[in-house]
Amino acid sequence: NEYMYEYYFEKNELNLSKNIIHLFENREFMEESVAILKEALRTGDSTQSIYRIELPLSVENKVIFKSVSSLIHNSKGKVHSVIGKLIDVSEEEAERQELIKKSETDGLTGLYNADTTKKLISEIMEKNDPDKADALLILDCDKFKEINDAHGHLHGDSVIAHVSQALKATFRKSDIIGRIGGDEFCIYMENVASGEFIISKYRQLVESLKQISPDSYITVSVGAALSDGEKSYDELFEKADAALYIVKNKGGDNLHFYDKKMM
Predict the structure, then answer these.
(1) Would you state the pLDDT for residue 43?
(2) Residue 214 CB: number of other CB atoms within 10 A?
(3) pTM for the whole thing?
(4) Mean pLDDT to the nearest integer, 40-64
(5) Where in the chain is the domain with CATH 3.30.450.20?
(6) CATH 3.30.70.270 domain range(s) in the chain
(7) Is the dihedral of CA 51, 54, 57, 61 positive or negative?
(8) CATH code for the part of the protein at 2-96
(9) Rounded CA separation 144/127 (Å)
(10) Which of 28, 61, 146, 260 pairs with 219 at a CA distance of 20 to 30 A?
């Protein structure tokens, strides 16, 4: 689907081909789209002949177009106008976004993968206010190897899927949740009011696991570290991992907070 346009710089006038008119739900959306396109043409890099632009066709439908254009010069060599076409690339853009999503997420759980988890948390930590209280949690499924050995990898996969469901149901939309290993997960929580809040989330997670998988007794171990001005993901991760190690050594199925005596 291609739609022609011509834009005149001096008059700030945009003419659209008739076949694009039917795309808009009403005149209001057409005028809004015209204003967006005019602004892009007027203020954009005049040497850029191909770029992408999002135009609202209706309340629920914003379409990505690729604009391909050529500059028209007058007899004095000055840019007079732009002639171009809009090409609907919504399907192509959706496929591109899907590929990006696949590259950032874990195939089994739909959670962020290890690389993306670290990247997102690192970006937050680099900008963090030292007085802001955040927390990093590392979660490990208890006796996961025994579960795999006894019941097979398909059952093991279902355990991982159930844990991920429980994590999504328990933690906030703003929290970063990632699967960082076979049976290991990472949760980063910003603006944590207190350790009690983390304890309440752990208890909520335990209850959620019981509801999601009543026939399989799944337990988890969690190591938690409250931020203390760290700017490095690895530094905070090491502290949460040390706390997790304590839990695992005591039989698992619990939550433990890092303290300085561990390191």
Answers:
(1) 84
(2) 8
(3) 0.72
(4) 85
(5) 2-96
(6) 105-262
(7) positive
(8) 3.30.450.20
(9) 36
(10) 260
What is the Cα–Cα distance from 81 to 70, expressed in whole angstroms? 9
Structure tokens at 102: 């696949």
Cα separations in angstroms, 139 against 53, 70, 88: 42, 56, 44
Distance between CA atoms of residues 88 and 1, nearest Å: 6
We find that the CATH architecture of domain 105-262 is 2-Layer Sandwich (3.30)
Beta carbons within 8 Å of 210's beta carbon, 6+ residues apart: none
| Amino acid sitting at position 226 | L
Q: How many CA atoms lie within 13 A of 231 on its CB side?
A: 4
Does position 206 have pLDDT exceeding 90, yes or no?
A: yes
CB under 8 Å, gap of 24 or more: what pairs does 92-100 form?
Answer: 93/52, 93/64
Task: List, for residues 7-43, the tens digit of each pLDDT value.
Answer: 999 999 999 999 998 899 999 999 999 999 999 998 8
What is the identity of the amino acid at 155?
H
Taking the C-alpha atoms of residue 235 and residue 60, their distance in angstroms, rounded to an integer, is 44
